[in-house]
Structures
1.
Amino acid sequence: MTAVAQTYRQVRALILRPWALWTLFVINVIAGVIGAIYWYGADLLQTPWWALVFVPDCPLFAALFAVALAGIALGRREWTWFNAITTVGLIKYGIWTVTVWILFWRAGYPATTESVVMTLTHIGMILEGVMLASFLTRLRLRHALLAGAWFYLSDWVDYGLGFRPRMAPGVSETFMMWEMIVVTTLLTLFLVWLAWRRRGAEAV
């Protein structure tokens, strides 16, 4: 076992302790509420009802991760559809936010408190997605394809219909659009690979 794999197992075991799991639950609920109000509040007031689910990306998936944690705590680890979509959303939108702030800094803007805090918290969001992926023990090809279809639809609503999140200054919308399409593709392929691996392990 490599040092990285061993560290991953130790961190995962720590998170699964009840006190840590429920602490993380509360943190994600609070983060979801604050993020929706702080970053998306004005946008949500002008968004039609049918597009609401596509707008507050990071706060939504922070809240969904809290639900996934509650499911794990209650012994309901077989929420494969839900956990597969939540896993992709956590990683995808965590990468989106970290990329936005890196481009912001590269454009010559200072490392503000907002940019640093959001970068660190969204790195945490990516790690939450990686942790949740370890619970996709019953993942099948249909789950992977459903998750991929959902996030391609989300990308189209964001960049095709113009319901994308507001960005920091100095960030190219076109670059972020293509980055999201590439990330959606890679994460869908990751789920397909994971489903194939799980099925292979069961066949042995």
2.
Amino acid sequence: MDEEMLLHSSELEVNGEVFSIKIFCSAAGRFFAKTCLGEDDFIITDGPSLPETLKRHEDLLPLAIGTRELTQSYFGGPRRPRGRRP
């Protein structure tokens, strides 16, 4: 089993919502950022270093959130409750 070590934690506001960003490093030296958008719904971004992983994740998170909102709207699914994300 691959162990993960939390290296960084921050928040990013997107369209009035605050999302938590956590960056981990695996025992194999792999960096990845993770944000929870809802129950069993995570955005994960890989990168070669902590700063590059954070930048990629901050750049992609608004697109991922917008895509999910469009998909939910198109299919008529339940909307995510707005607010602070863990």
3.
Amino acid sequence: MLETLTTLLLPWSELYADSAWIPTTILAVHVLALFAGGGIAIAADRRVLLATPGTREAYQAAAEDLRTTHAIVIGSIAMMVLSGIALAASDIGTFAVSKVFWAKMAAFTVLIANGAYMRRTESRVLTAATDAGVVIDKTTQWPSPHLPWAVLKRSATISLVSWFCVVLLGVVLSDI
């Protein structure tokens, strides 16, 4: 199967190897998308981890800020996937048997799954924060237990670790 795939991708592999600007352009798109999406995501994760909103409006503002951030990050991830496919297809024989490549793909899968879960949780925070039934305890300044802020913080931690793993494994993969 790998031999068939390598044969199918041979024209792309030859074009990639013979061009001066194609590898540079694709690698630049991949790294810039990683830089933009990962940088914005890491900054948002940090804000979530440090935040302790005390009012319903503060929770709502934090969740809306996170939602805006995710739109940019998803666009960057789409660019990373497209450029990553082009990079992997340029030397499929090497990448398909690389344990580092598959470890990076596993970390990336965790990142994507966690991101989807995080988006769902931010929607739950928004719903709970805008719901008239949610009460902020005036003495503790903590929200009703229906507000899943702790879940969002746990997802932010997983997101940070996943982004760092993807970058680290990408650096290791560049030496293969």
4.
Amino acid sequence: MTFQTALSFALPFGLAVAALGSALGLGKAVAAAMDAMGRQPEAAGKIQTGMIIGCALIEALTIYALVAFFILQGRIA
């Protein structure tokens, strides 16, 4: 198995794992924030701000994986 073959199998798999992890993390973070806002409506603004910052960081990791995918994709051919 050559380097290019291994990379062509590993890149889509790695991107899929990153996307799946990001989706699960976002779902769990938003669900927990909605639950907290339901229990403490007076703190909804602070909870929502924290949730948005957390979601942005989770999305940033997914974007890093996508950028790494495009960078390494050029080494396959």
